[in-house]
Amino acid sequence: MTLFRSRISKAVVPAAGLGTRFLPATKATPKEMLPVVDKPAIQYVVEEAVAAGLPDVLMVTGRNKRPLEDHFDRNYELEEQLARKGDESKLARVQESSDLAAIHYVRQGDPRGLGHAVLCAEPHVGDQPFAVLLGDDLIDPRDPLLTRMIEVQERLGGSVIALIEVDPSQIHLYGCAAVRATEEDGVVRVTDLVEKPGPGEAPSNYAVIGRYVLDPGVFGEIKQTQPGRGGEIQLTDALRMLAQRTDQGGPVHGVLFTGRRYDTGDRGDYLRAIVRLACEREDLGPDFRSWLRTFVAEEMT
């Protein structure tokens, strides 16, 4: 078997969306900056990229996203004030975000879909494989999905997407993959992709979630991709073309994920994610779980 030396070191985080599902909270605050317990959602995503060995992160932003840059920048006034007070714990937490990674920014300008957002990263990424992490999906660090995907891409080449099995009634909310088994447990070959399939159109109940490791050949396919569902340039449509190839950017494999995933793109799931993560925190969990049990018991009476 040929060993592909991809030397993946760069992650791309699309962050140009308007966050309309969270209005009015996102009228002046980027949805990526909404707190999940005590950190903005976007910080969890950057931490995941760094933990997978990707020290170079490009954020694809748009208008009104300046708070993202401020969060990952130094705040000298605040740091100086905390240092004077001797509050080392809070000082470390403030400095943590600015020390995480080498973070770069590019503006998408015209928001023309995820495919177009990924295309904006081409000058920064160059001709090497790269990861794409969507901020609506938070993956628990105890389940190193991205590390596994990178390992698969380095062995098999092409592109790798993350797949979860969902109830057939929910598949219309996702990109959907047609797959066939490989000799490796938990890894499938993707043969076709459909973005948010209509009734009777889904080839399976394997849904694409927001983690990708992409061959740079995807850029050429995106450039030839016409606007699809929603009038946007869909990354799914470009990957569909790569899935049919064995060279020039193909093939496409899927890693089946059964670990802990927190969906912050929906208001209800966002609240559930906060509760789950708060319950598991050593500093917050014991008291919070005790209160939660009492609250639930009172609600049930």
TrEMBL record:
Any one GO BP annotation for this protein: UDP-alpha-D-glucose metabolic process
Keyword Metal-binding: no
Protein name: UTP--glucose-1-phosphate uridylyltransferase
GO MF: UTP:glucose-1-phosphate uridylyltransferase activity
Catalysed reactions listed for this entry: alpha-D-glucose 1-phosphate + UTP + H(+) = UDP-alpha-D-glucose + diphosphate
EC number: 2.7.7.9
Classification via Gene3D superfamilies: Spore Coat Polysaccharide Biosynthesis Protein SpsA, Chain A (3.90.550.10)
Key words of the record: Nucleotidyltransferase, Transferase
Chain ranges of the Nucleotidyl transferase domain: 10-274
Native species: Wenjunlia vitaminophila (Streptomyces vitaminophilus)
PANTHER family: UTP--GLUCOSE-1-PHOSPHATE URIDYLYLTRANSFERASE
Family of the protein in this entry: Belongs to the UDPGP type 2 family.
Superkingdom, taxonomy of origin: Bacteria
Entry keyword Transferase: yes
Lineage, highest ranks first: Bacteria, Bacillati, Actinomycetota, Actinomycetes, Kitasatosporales
